[in-house]
Write a structure and sequence with these properties.
Strand order of the largest sheet: 1-2-5-6
Number of domains: 1
Radius of gyration: 17 Å
Oligomer: single chain
Largest sheet: 4 strands, antiparallel
Shape: elongated
Structural class: mainly beta
Length: about 80
Amino acid sequence: MQGFSAQEKQIFLRGVIEKITVATLDKQAHEVVINFKIPYVNDKFEWKNPRAKGQGYLLGDGQKEVSVDIDTSKKSPKLK
């Protein structure tokens, strides 16, 4: 998405995200839950035959939700 304009990024995200929920855990911690329209999280892509890609591929099930804890007193968020 590096070459996308801000508007193109917004259109893409509206197409894949169902909703975003933010909950306050305490004064410095928040939980952000992102629900996707299709199961993007931890899905799997595997070629049926890596040497003959024309034979197709398999998509493994993923999850529709990812949760991130954000502590404003720390530098990096933790994925759940």
